[in-house]
Amino acid sequence: MFVLLTAGAVFLVQAVVSRDVVRELGGQLIDAGMDGLEAAIAEQLYSIRKTASYTARALDTEAVSLDDPVSLESYLFGALAPLDQVSFALIVDATGNGIRVDRGGGAGSLLSEEVSLDLDEPLVSPVFDRAKNTFSPFWSDPMFIPRRDNTYLLYVKPLHEAGTYLGTIILGMSLHRMSEITRHLSDDDITVFLMQVGTTEIIAHPELSHHFADLHPENILVDVDDVPDLFLAGFTKLKKVGNRAFDLNPRDALYSGYDETGEKRFLVLEDRNRSFRGLPVRVGVHFRAEYLEHSVNELTGAAATGLGLLGLSLLGAGLLARRISVPVKRASIAANEVAGLNLGDVRDLPPSSIRELDDLARGFNAMVSGLKAFNRYVPTSLVKRLIQEGRTETPPQEREVAVLFTDIVGFTSLSEGLTATETANFINHHLSLLGAEITKENGTIDKYIGDAVMAFWGAPETLDNPAASAARAALGIAKVLKDDNSQRISRGETPVRIRIGIHLGPLVVGDIGAPERVNYTVIGDTVNIAARLESLGRDIDPDADIIITVSKEVADRLPQTMLVDQIGNQKVKGRDNPVEVVRLWSENQV
Asked: 469 or 29: whose pLDDT is higher?
């Protein structure tokens, strides 16, 4: 009897401890996911802040001048090209005269215009009055701009010299651009949104575009009750769950409720986010409750059943304790690995002949799958690479880097008639094909820009010939797209046409940012030239299914086995000197 009671007590302790571990993992699951989302959004905002800072430095060192519209226009074209989250960039002097560069309707197109603002106009005067009286950059409150028919958040960088106000740099993000960020961070089970600090009004949501037509000067944001997300629209009716239930970070609030299908979901909403540096938004996400609850419920059932079986007999209790303790111990070890986010070392718990332990294994595996879903927002690849090399940081340095841009021709017509889900599936499939070829050639994907990709070679690894690697990736993309188009044609679908541009040149590459948040990226005019080469494909051969345009700097580094065709000097927008362009042919195009 003593052995029986001892075995029962040991099993009970294991069950309780395992339950607490799983609950703690639930909190770590949420914390890791929120940290990843915060990092992904902060990365977008960081590039805006640095662009404004570099622009102010360029003006201060007279690399460009407020009195020289041509140099300002050229500079803003290069600065705005990689910032797909920014709608427009504006530089004006103290009188309101200056240059504005807008992101055009076509993919990768930029438009410039000389402007003369009335600084006393009620819409803009609060922004410029504040800029005149402060030396620090700041984010504006949401502002509806009638001529743009959308609401914007402005990042404002005042320009002062010896206490004298010289002008202002402004980078504007529309609700449309911010909602695109949340759309790329969301999937079928996880919805990411941004809510204004201190209110229940929505700044960004994957489906917010359905309500842009309702925005006007008296209604600059969409209230949570009106968002086209039925679960989120019932936010004020959700039940608040105590943070202790899953050992949740105090900065976050946890809510629960049921969606229109009756499925239980959790919603996590953070408080004001300091890493956003004054942007008046807070991150929210809602997801299936099964990610957190399934394993806890199954553990409870397994413990109760185990205790009942222990009462049958001493022999049966001893045998059952062994059969239960082994998988529970395995689950505990796996739980500790998950707690350290060592997801690559976690294997699925195997099935068991005991029904309750089999349920436990399935529930635990479901939780790990949920954690992996959140963990994909955390930029871990570069960190792993630094660990392998024994380094903790990558200081900025000048490197010779090859930059590649891609863009789908006529994406709007391709997506006509598709639902939002079908459009997302199409883009994800397309980007997966391109990403695989870029990765195969040791390329680094800098960002996805809607249906387009920006990638580079030559960093962080040093390559003997980054231009050749980029060219091989482009030819690989051409091949897989041809094969994929054959399948699309057989299904009666329109084939996908694509333009690719590649340029090789010096760039600053490395960790850019403050100590609390850095971004591994590239900075320099080479990025702008690569984007322009991609756009030139439209003029060189508008009917081509796949056209690859490269600069002479790239062509000079290619092996003789690659087929090229000299196009000649071409004038590109934003540059005074022409670019010598070469067309790269794949074997199936010749």
From this structure: 469
Q: Could you check whether the bond before residue 82 is cis, i.e. omega within 30 degrees of 0?
A: no
Q: Which tokens hold the place of 188?
A: 């079928």
Enter the tokens of residue 559: 């092996």
CA distance 470 to 123: 47
* Predicted local distance difference test score (pLDDT) of residue 239: 94
Q: Is residue 463 over pLDDT 50?
A: yes
Distant-in-sequence, close-in-space partners of 289: CB < 8 Å, separation ≥ 6? 256, 263, 264, 265, 266
In the structure encoding, which two tokens stand for residue 521, read together? 């990226």
Predicted pLDDT of residue 17? 44
Query: What is the distance between the alpha carbons of residues 258 and 289, in angstroms, rounded to a whole number?
Result: 9
Q: Within 13 Å, how many C-alpha atoms sit on residue 498's CB side?
A: 28
What per-residue confidence (pLDDT) applies to 35? 84
Q: Which residues contact 464 (CB under 8 A, 6 or more apart)?
A: none
The answer on pLDDT for 516 being more than 70 is no
Which H or E element spans position 64? none
State the pLDDT at residue 20: 55
C-alpha to C-alpha distances, 228 to 15, 225, 385, 415, 588, nearest whole angstrom: 42, 9, 41, 21, 46
Mean pLDDT score, 31-53: 88
Query: What gap in Å lies between CA 498 and CA 482, rounded to an integer?
Result: 11
Side-chain-side CA neighbours of residue 186 (13 Å) = 27
β-strand pairing of 164-174 with 190-196: unpaired
Look up tokens 């800072």; give the residue.
53
The per-residue pLDDT of the chain, averaged, comes to: 83
The answer to whether the CB of 238 falls within 8 A of the CB of 256 is yes
Q: Cα 471 to chain center, whole Å?
A: 26
- Contact (CB, 8 A) for 515 and 409: no
pLDDT digits (tens, 9 = 90+) for 71-93: 899 999 988 888 888 999 999 99
Q: Are strands 498-514 and 546-551 parallel, antiparallel or unpaired?
A: parallel
Segment 248-298, tens digit of pLDDT: 888 899 999 999 999 999 999 998 777 888 899 999 999 998 877 765 555
Q: Which residue has the tokens 């008639």?
A: 417
Q: How many CB atoms lie within 10 A of CB 522?
A: 22
**Angstrom distance (rounded) from CA 172 to CA 113:** 15
Q: Are 11 and 307 in contact (CB under 8 A)?
A: yes
Q: Which residues pair with 507 in a beta bridge?
A: 399
Question: What would the two tokens of residue 276 be?
Answer: 């956003």
Residues 6+ apart with CB under 8 A from 497: 408, 409, 410, 544, 545, 546
> Rg (Cα) of the chain, in Å, rounded?
28
Lowest-confidence segment of 190-194, 335-339, 413-417, 568-572 by average pLDDT: 335-339
* 439-453, 547-561, 576-590: the lowest-pLDDT one: 576-590
Q: At what angle do helices 175-185 and 2-60 cross, to 10 degrees?
A: 150
CB of 243 closer than 8 Å to CB of 250? yes
Q: What is the largest CA-CA distance in the chain?
A: 94
Where are the strands (E) in 374-516, listed by range? 397-408, 444-449, 452-457, 498-514
